[in-house]
Amino acid sequence: MRLPVQLLLGALLFGLFLAAALLSLVWTPHAVTQLDIAAKLALPGHGHPLGTDHLGRDMVSMLMAGARTSIAVALLAVGIGIALGVPLGLTAAARRGSLLDEIIMRGNDLIFAFPSLVIAILITAVFGPSAVNAILAIGIFNVPVFARVARGAALTIWPREFILAARVAGKGRARISAEHILPNIASLLVVQGTIQFSMGILAEAGLSYVGLGAQPPTPSWGRMLADAQTFIYANPRLAVLPGLAIVLTVLGLNLMGDGLRDFLDPRLRRAVR
Amino acid sequence: MIGIERLSVVLGGVPVLRDVSLAIPPGRTLGLVGESGSGKSMTAFSVMRLLPQGARVTGEITLESRSLASLSERQMCAVRGAEIGMIFQEPMTALNPVRTIGDQVAETLLVHGAATRSEAQGVARERLARVGLSPDRFPLDRYPHELSGGQRQRVCIALAIALRPKLLIADEPTTALDVTTQAQILALLRELVREEGMSCLFITHDLAVVAEMADEIAVMQAGGVVEQGPTGTVLREKRHPYTRALFEASGHQPARTTRVEDAPLLEVRGAVRDYALKRVRFFGPRPAFRAVDGVSFALRRGESLGLVGESGCGKSTLTRAILGLEPLQGGEIRLDGAPVSPDMPPELRRRMQVVFQDPYGSFNPRHRVSRLLTEPFHLTGQPPDLDNRIAEALENVGLTASDAEKFPHEFSGGQRQRIAIARALIARPELIVLDEAVSALDVRVRAQILDLLADLQARFALSYLFIAHDLSVVRSVTDRVMVMRVGRIVEEGETEAVFSAPQDGYTRALLKAAPVLPAA
Amino acid sequence: MLRYAATRLISLTLSLVAASLVIFAVVEVIPGDPAAYMLGLNAAPEAVAALREDLGLSGGLVERYLTWAGGMLTGDFGTSYTYRVPVADLVAARLWISLPLALYALALSTLLALPVGMLAAARRGRVTDYGIMGFTQLGIAVPNFWFAMLLVVLLAITYPIFPAGGFPGWDAGILPALRALTLPAVALALPQASILARVMRSALIETLSQDYIRTARAKGLTEGQAIRNHGMRNALIPVLTIIGLQFSFLLAGAIIIEKVFFLPGLGLLIFQGITQRDLVVVESVVMLLVFAVILVTFLVDLAYALVDPRLRHAR
User: Fold this and answer.
1) How far, rounded to the nearest angstrom, does the alpha carbon of residue A230 sit from its chain's CA centroid?
2) Least confident of A130-134, B61-65, B381-385, C194-198
């Protein structure tokens, strides 16, 4: 069984930024908190391969640290979505048509009425802007997504006869959900996870761009873009670089998601064989 | 007159049809029979030139002395629907759900430029009336979802014959229908072929159906025609061993030795099962649908009891209640005196096991056979001699101990059904519920499974509750039979007595509708 | 159909009530004393008390909620604490930028995506399809506000075809106003159009494997005719769902992108509201946004029923 090209390409792209993010935990070429006004807006070269920003900070270091923020926020938000959404979706499916199912699904609809940005606005209006609140806002938005996917997929598994057989064997709904349903929908959840991951990166960038995400001095791609806007005509480099970083990371994740779906979907796999 | 000469098809490097030659004169029906994968449908799609991409076709297909093989795709589009009509197995999905039936019939005329829009409406009305959907009860603006399966199949027939084609291909047109509906559709097709002077290629796996329908029979096996001739002759002489095997398997009578005790094992008294439906109004009460309405019966130890009925009669609902998966709204179910319910004790559950219809759907595709088989031990805890029990169960159903390490997809349909039986056996139950357990199998495999079930019943003193829609199978393997209709048991008695002298009007209609294989 | 619309309308009302409760709870209950929160740590107790009086915080929670929700219904959104003017006036002026922007983008996205998706489906597995799929893959990955910046550099500064920012107002005429909204709308529409085109493509391809397409082919329709006459309307059902969801994304996106173009829309208002802790403004604008999303969901539900007769007749 060959790995799809998309999966490899996507993993390579995303892996590059993930590695940069991890590396930034222990080392960056320059400290990102180190301002050097004298060296502001320096062009690439002289110990700054991609130049410096308007405060003289090294762009490579800023991009590395920004990757860390973006990836951490999006990953934790996916974690919240899976940790809350999947059990909710599985429960709703196991109790299909019951009051509990109804409550869970109506609750989902309610959250869907709040775009992720609006959730962030509400949270920051009350608790103030921070990276943690960005994680919460995106995470809350992810919950109904995973709940719906999990419920929808689980509902196609429940009527299968092997589930009936497990029920005849006396297994309870919770146990069947964990033992039979979850493994059979896991690949779908992994694919959805990469999609939400990439959407999380975009959402984090948007939130920090409008000042609702990570606060200075924590570097983030969205904030770099907001800062660059003032200098965009004279120094387009400052806006292009973080933007490209976002595009490539998201592209990598999406390619991975598509590749994973092709790889994991048994229907497609059978078609290939 | 349609002629097929030495038709061969290779699909993805695999030959799927080999040297098929057939001819059907106008007004005559050719029955194409064989088991799944024998190439019946592939023959039909070759004639329609609707094979999957990459299929390589050789041979000659002629319609009224015109060769179809040499036509371009555009010319072929003009032939399809106008000169060749086709109907399919699954009427529930064969129609576009978002367009009216009148539209879909009229479209056949419009796409061939055979009528103006308003004329097409008129023809559609007339053709729908022709297939038994009168305009007053079935106006053109009905949507498919407002029709039953049999009515939808009539719409499919109407749009296939809208332009009075020279050839009608019917690919298992009644397999998805209930037996009484099947009888009506078959009668309609016979009448249409005769009166419209069409040639008809009738594809089926069911020998009894083809015996009623066809003037000629062609028997297919592994992509080739093994025997062909007038229906009477083929069924009487059965020259080819494969024909003989099919014929014998279709009417197979397993050798059964049963020791029925008087004590009842399973008792159902006044069982009622209601389902809540969707609310009609937003805050209104949910209306209820009574799926099982006061059913009472007893199954004696060592007995095989049949339960027959058409789809929607409530037999599946009753089955789930008997298995203790769903609660009753009235009455009670007892297994050996102990009450059956969703929270019955594990030991009671162990004594009653089940085998389902679908050999593909009844296993978790991610588990090995060993794990699949031991699922019932969830109830009682794993026995110390687990591996022996697995090996024993597999050998009891004609498999080998080494099969335990395989995954379900490594087995054929019949083998999977054996695994399902092994899973039921491993808990050493007293009652096995067979829920359409042989319905999805080809006739020869079905005969083997029925033999296996009879053998196991004798060896382990099992009782069977045999649920099926196929009357002939029920007749061959049960001691007593119950007929169910809209939630009630309308007739119950010794199997032979019910089949030879049915008392209830519905039972009589059911038996009359069932196609019968002519005696050898 | 009427019954279906009525049930959807009831469900819309219930969603609105639930959403307003959530917003009220987050903004007015969780902070404890909103007046103290809005004035900050160093506020004089008298000022806090006065503001509390101003905001009508003296009543019980239920009473306050009913006053607020009732006010919203009659168009009274309260008085902004920072601007000292009715929030309704503040919102009204800005709504007519954000809402048209979101709708403009939605129209662009839909008009662009559906034909492109159909083309890709019709040419599936060929070069055109791969080209479209690659392009949309990239389009999804582009943050709309970054794309907006690039558009400004290219089409407003380097080649000054469109204004780089600001809004002349609808009084200046429809065309100048639309011109000012074009770059933001294009920037918003591109990523969404990429998603929608992919959905359209896969929905169409999905319908191609349906039995009714086989029936249509057996009737003598060419593959193209079968797609047009039978695939399209069925494919629209999943596409409608995505269009509904996109409105919510576009509205949020509009708020962000206003910052790139210095458009005086709801975004500017709400971010000022946040910095100045003007909870009355935040609460009202959020409720308004949620109302818009729920309303569009309702419209999409009605559109479903137009496409799918099974819904019209159900219930």
Assistant:
1) 28
2) B381-385
Alpha helices in B49-97 (DSSP H): 73-79, 91-94
- A126 CA: distance to closest CA in chain C (Å): 6
Q: C144 lies in which domain range?
A: 91-275
pLDDT tens-digit map of C29-56 = 777 677 777 777 677 788 777 777 777 6
Q: Do C252 and A115 touch (CB under 8 A)?
A: yes
User: What are the tens digits of pLDDT across the range A24-83?
Assistant: 888 888 777 777 777 777 777 777 777 777 777 888 888 999 999 999 999 999 999 999
Distance between CA atoms of B500 and B520, rounded to whole angstroms? 19
User: If we measure between CA atoms, which residue out of C310, C309, C237, C305 comes closest to residue C5?
Assistant: C305
Can you give the length of chain C in residues?
315
Does any CB of chain B come closer than 8 Å to the CB of residue C226?
Answer: no
Query: Tokens representing B399?
Result: 């498999």
Structural domain contains residue C3:
no
Q: What's the number of domains chain C is made of? A: 1
What is residue B281's predicted lDDT score, i.e. its pLDDT? 61
CA dist C108 to A86, B388, C113, C184, C294, Å? 35, 68, 8, 11, 21
**Residue C111 is assigned to a structural domain of this protein:** yes
Residue A271 has pLDDT above 50, yes or no: no
Question: Given 3-state DSSP classes, what are the helix, strand and coil percentages for chain B, each rounded to the nearest 5?
Answer: 40, 25, 35
Q: What is the pLDDT of residue A268?
A: 44
Beta carbons of B93 and C233 less than 8 Å apart = no
How do beta strands B199-204 and B29-33 pair?
parallel
| pLDDT value for C186 | 96
Rounded average pLDDT over A234-262: 90
| Subunit contact A168:B357, Cβ cutoff 8 A | no
Percent of chain C with pLDDT over 70: 98
Full-model pTM = 0.86
Residue C233 inside a domain? The answer is yes
Q: Report DSSP state, residue B199.
A: E
**Which chain C residue has its CA at the smallest distance from A124's CA?**
C274
Region C245-268 average pLDDT: 90
CATH code for the domain of C170: 1.10.3720.10
Contact residues, chain C, for B88 at CB < 8 Å = 211, 214-215, 218
> A124: domain CATH number?
1.10.3720.10
Task: Tell me if C14 sits within 8 A of C6, measured CB to CB.
Answer: no
B401-417 exposure pattern, b = at least 16 Cβ within 10 A, e = fewer: eebbeeebeebebbbbb
ipTM for the predicted complex:
0.88
pLDDT in tens, A75-116: 999 999 999 999 999 999 999 888 899 899 989 989 888 887
Q: Is C41 on the interface with A (CB under 8 A)?
A: no
- Label residue A273 by pLDDT band (50, 70, 90): very low
Is C123's pLDDT higher than 90? no
Interface contact flag, B362 A168, Cβ < 8 Å: no
Name which of A121, A126, A251 is nearest C137 (Cβ-Cβ): A251
Contacts of B322 in chain A (CB under 8 A): none
Q: Do C315 and B278 touch (CB under 8 A)?
A: yes
Q: What subunits touch chain C, counting only 3 or more CB pairs under 8 A?
A: A, B
**Is A210 part of any domain?**
yes
Collect the ranges in chain B with pLDDT lower than 70.
278-284, 359, 519-520
Interchain contact B353–A (C-beta under 8 A) = yes
Q: Which of chain B's residues have a Cβ under 8 Å away from the Cβ of A168?
A: 323-325, 349, 352-354, 376
Q: C-alpha C72: how far from its chain's center?
A: 20
Does residue A212 lie within any of the structural domains? yes
Within 8 A of A164 by CB-CB distance, chain B residues are 320, 325, 354, 356, 362
Q: Is residue C108 part of a domain?
A: yes
Instruction: Check if A243 contacts C (Cβ < 8 Å).
Output: yes
Question: Cβ of B159 under 8 Å from any chain C Cβ?
Answer: yes
* B323–chain A Cβ distance below 8 A for any pair: yes
